[in-house]
Amino acid sequence: QLVESGGGLVQAGGSLRLSCAGSGRTFSAWAMGWFRQAPGKEREFVASITWSGDSTVYADSVKGRFTISRDNAKKTVDLQMDSLKPEDTAVYYCNVVRLSDYMTPFDSWGQGTQVTVSS
Predict the structure, then answer these.
(1) Most distant CA atoms of the chain, gap in Å
(2) Which of 6, 13, 29, 35 could serve as a FRET partner for 94 with CA atoms 20 to 30 Å apart?
(3) Is 32 exposed, middle or buried (CB count within 10 Å of its CB: 0-12, 13-18, 19+)?
(4) CA angle 34, 40, 45 (to 5 degrees)
(5) Summary mean pLDDT of the chain
(6) Facing residues of 45 across strands?
(7) Burial of 40 (0-12, 13-18, 19+ CB in 10 A)
(8) Per-residue pLDDT tens digits for 22-34
(9) Could you tell me if 60 and 69 are in contact, meaning their C-beta atoms sit under 8 angstroms apart?
(10) Can you give the pLDDT at residue 100?
(11) DSSP output for the chain
(12) Nearest Cα to 71, choosing from 11, 9, 27?
């Protein structure tokens, strides 16, 4: 089970830090990713990280502004979002990602956390 938190309302140029809390003994064995879905749009990949945290992948739209990290001892995966833009407004979700491409979600979706960036 994955639970997202940390969303909120922020002005353009601001920052937010999202957190995804996992459970189960195998959490540290999974590659994890963040995804987002804006109103009227399909859910899209944002960022992912290997089980060890030694490699990351980012969507071009967030590269250089977002940073994904994980703490396997705490069973958390965080997404630090800086220089936020109004187009980052969406519901953000975390999920396990497939090892084939580190971008395809693998598990069911949680409730997500809403991020709203005002201009």
Answers:
(1) 42
(2) 13
(3) buried
(4) 20
(5) 95
(6) 35
(7) exposed
(8) 987 788 889 999 9
(9) no
(10) 87
(11) --EEE--EEEETT--EEEEEE--STTGGGS-EEEEEE-TTS--EEEEEE-TTSS-EEE-TTTTTTEEEEEETTTTEEEEEE-S--GGG-EEEEEEEB-TTTS-SB-S-----EEEEEE-
(12) 27
Reading the block at residue 19, the tokens are 């957190």
Query: CA 14 to CA 50: how far, in whole Å?
Result: 27
Q: Which residues of the chain have pLDDT under 70?
A: none
Q: Which residue has the tokens 């990280």?
A: 49
Is 90 buried (19+), middle (13-18) or exposed (0-12) by CB count in 10 A? buried
Convert the pLDDT of each residue in 31-48 to its tens digit.
Answer: 999 999 999 999 999 999
User: CA-CA distances (angstroms) from residue 109 to 1, 14, 35, 54?
Assistant: 9, 27, 10, 25
Amino acid identity for residue 96 in this structure: V
